[in-house]
Amino acid sequence: MKRILIFLLLTFCFSGFLFADDEEENLPGNGSPTPNLENSGSPADAARRRVQITALNTETVNLIRANNLARASVNIERIKKLDENTVEYHYLKGSYLYAQGRYPQAKNSLLRAIQIQPGHDPSYYQLGMIFVQRNKWPRSLEYFQKAVELSNYNPFYRINLALAYFETGNYLRAKAEAERAIELKPNFRAAKLLLLKSNFLLGNKADAYSQCVEFVKDGFQSREYMLIHARLVMDIHQNFRKAIKIYNLYGELPFQEKRFLAHAYYNTGNYRAAAATYQQVIQFRIAEEEDKIEYIRSLSFIKDYRRLESFVTSWLQEEPDKRRKVQEALDIAELLKDNDSKTFHMFPSRSPY
Question: Are the C-beta atoms of 87 and 54 separated by less than 8 Å?
Answer without folding.
Answer: no
